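Input:
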Amino acid sequence: KEKHKILHQLLQNSTSPVDL
Amino acid sequence: SPFPAHAVRNKLISHLLLTESAPLAANQDDSTNDGSLRTLLTLCDLLNRELLVLIGWAKQIPGFSGLSLVDQMSLLQSGWMEALLVGVAWRTQGASGEELVFAGNLRLDKAQCRAAGLADLYEALRHLTAKYQAMNLSAEEAAVLKAVALANSDASLVDCPDSVQRFQDGLHEALQDYESSRREQHRAGRLLMSLPLLRQTADRAVEAFLRLHRHRRVPLHKLLLEMLDAK
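Output:
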């Protein structure tokens, strides 16, 4: 899932800031 | 709720409406003096932010968060542009003339789209928006259509087909319910029959932005690029 890192992070409700 | 109670008879649809965010405004790009590139960059920035909002909204669609993470990703990767274009069609519905309303402060006509390298997309989108304009979509229909566009993936690798099917069934039922409560027995079918055109238009939009990125080196935000690349 490395290729779809941001979507993965956003869906996992990650609390760490996401670099968009 | 900003919507009259009598208009919202269906719990799922009223939930979809209530969890929608306020319309985003475009932030004018000021990184270049080239007017048409500025328009394009402004549009891409808006799309990137809309995408972020859409992902947050999708998580609140009843049934979505119960899907496996892999399936949530597949549905979003497949349907995000369709869902965003329903938004454009909805905003354009009230506009007069030949404009496409991407945001209240970002209305593009044919000449502006052509200058930005989006001539093909303009024609395809006008065709789509004219169709929905003629149907006079309600806010409820636009919301459920967006959710249906996300649920209606043809992704080949579905982790749990039964859960995805149940998710689709729930939305379909809500749409049927809503239309029968308005005594509009044909509208649910008509809306579902608009999905092929919606997908075709979304495919063109994806191609247009990828072309601009790859051939004209238009810089895109990371999230937008990731989602375009997933196509």
